[in-house]
Design brief:
Helices cover 80% and strands 0% of the residues.
Length: 92
């Protein structure tokens, strides 16, 4: 959620172009809009706050990923891990 907010704030142009492409290509958006999705992702990944979240919250995110691997049939068992990661990201 924090990364999405950063993307919307600092990469608005890329996000809007991607959204317009998806809306214009309902049947083939995954193929047709791939380049725009990458552009939006690159923009967000380059932002210093996103980089800081990746550094400062690496452990809670890794714990969440481990939980998903250990509980593939019951993702809801990992909600505490998601909450811990989001709490960390909000503090950054």
């Amino acid at each position: 959620q924090a990364a999405l907010e950063i993307t919307a704030r600092y990469c608005r142009s890329e996000m809007e172009q991607y959204g317009q492409c998806v809306a214009a290509s309902p049947a083939s958006w995954q193929r047709d809009c791939h380049r725009l999705r990458l552009s939006m992702s690159r923009c967000a990944a380059a932002h210093p706050i996103v980089q800081q979240i990746r550094r400062d919250c690496a452990e809670p995110f890794a714990a969440f990923e481990r939980c998903l691997k250990e509980n593939p049939a019951s993702v809801t068992d990992c909600s505490d891990h998601v909450d811990a990661f989001l709490l960390c990201a909000d503090r950054v």
